[in-house]
Design a protein that fits this description.
The protein is mainly α. It is 72% helix and 0% strand.
């Protein structure tokens, strides 16, 4: 996947993860970083659990795996820092 596609998908995944975790989203830069790291984490987890890397290409499967990875990252971050969701 190209750099521009990774940035767009990362931003979308990070924003969706922020909405799911009731954080109201983050800045656009944090959304991109969170989404890209979530994609890497999600790809690694799917390859370990089911033996297939589902983060290849610009498609719905990649977005779902990226969002799930980003949600895990947000949950771990909140667990470590003791921060809760913004209400």
């Amino acid at each position: 996947m190209g750099l521009i596609a990774s940035l767009i998908l990362g931003a979308a995944a990070g924003w969706i993860a922020g909405m799911i975790m009731k954080g109201g989203g983050y800045s656009w830069l944090i959304n991109i970083v969170l989404g890209i790291l979530g994609s890497m984490l999600g790809g690694w987890l799917t390859s370990v659990l089911i033996g297939v890397d589902l983060t290849s290409g610009f498609n719905l499967t990649t977005l779902i795996v990226s969002v799930l990875g980003a949600v895990v990252l947000v949950a771990v971050y909140r667990l470590i820092t003791g921060r809760s969701a913004v209400r």
